[in-house]
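Hey, quick one: can you model this chain's 3D structure?
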Amino acid sequence: MAITATKKKGLFAWYFNTNLLTRILIGMVLGIVAGMVFGKSILWVSPFGDILVRLLKMIVMPVVIFTLVVGAASIHPSRLGRIGIKALGWYMLTSAIAVAIGLACGNLFRPGSGMSLGDVGAAAGKTLTQPSLLDTFMAVIPTNPFESVTSGNILAVIFSSIIFGMALAHLRDNKKERIRNAAATVFSFFEGCAEIMYKVVQWVLQYAPIGVFALIAVVFAKQGAQAFGPLATITASVYIGLAVHLLVVYCGMLAVYGINPLQFLIRIREAFVTAFVTRSSGATLPVSMEVADEKLGVSKGVYSFTLPLGATINMDGTAIYQGVCAVFVGLAIGMPLTFNQQLTVIATAVLASIGTAGVPGAGAIMLLLVLDSVGLKVEPGSAVAAAYAMILGIDALLDMGRTGMNVAGDLAVTTVVAKSEGELDPAFWDDSALGAQAGQAVEKA
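Sure thing. Here's the predicted structure for all 445 residues.
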């Protein structure tokens, strides 16, 4: 998601007025150069990287709680009719498939294999004692939600926050005015807290370029030129996963419903390119609505609900990214993810997707949750932190592809739901319309 900032004045105006993602990329490049040139003599910068890790860990839990409660409470039961249930079901299903595709690409291309980042910092033990799959899923339901927060049981926190938000959504729609007013007050409190956390996240991310520089410098001081290969492999794995998801999952579901996949891709190109450039599903929403209305023939009664809902909870591109990156971190520190751990990654990514879209810098922050859920804790000075820093350095490049995929998914689900409800104008999809659309695409090209 793109971060915008007001113009700053003063001694450090040049720093704050430069695009944040550009600064992070510059920090990564400078860290690589410093690590390669100065070698182990640059290790004194390590505490500056540890500060970034500690700041990120500080904001994760409140961000999760407040954004998930607001996200779940925003889906009003009165609007969750057949259209809402169908859209919600498709979004959750495609998100689960997306994480699985990301994990498959990670296992196939094995980014991080042979890096031996365990020498960079002290990982939390050389072995991870993982509970059984049944124990993992039973632990999702907390006996004490507050204890889950303090102990860092992220799956339990996600589950309890979603349940709380769903209950709040029902009370906001209650027939009794007293209860509605009380629920509105609670919702305003959580919404205000979420907005506060968005601001705190922006402040933390202002420090990110410095922290990335320090963390990357330490990695390359230890690893040397061999660290370049995994970065390229991560990028290739993510984009291959995105392409597979688009062509197999989205085009497949469209074809099942009798919708021409090629024409769909041609018609959504404006929204896709806007999302790719802006890296923001929210900023692309007006364009997506225009495309749904004028290019796809979806009725307003459908897209006015499914597209905002998708911009909030549909994060297929981010899910693929999380799957690939989780595999990378495990391989980079010499602790490949087990089958049970990979199932946990799928569950965590799907549950967390409800609140992901509302968080600036969402993908990288939610990756912390995914890693934590399988025991790969990002601790200051640890090997996991070093691997995470490498991902953060190229996050801008990965963010473009995953945001474009998120928007394409919103439009694909919207089109399928509209077709199933008889709310898709067939005049937009007859042979003459298809021919005219293709001709316009060729002329513009």
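One thing worth noting: The longest helix spans residues 177-223.
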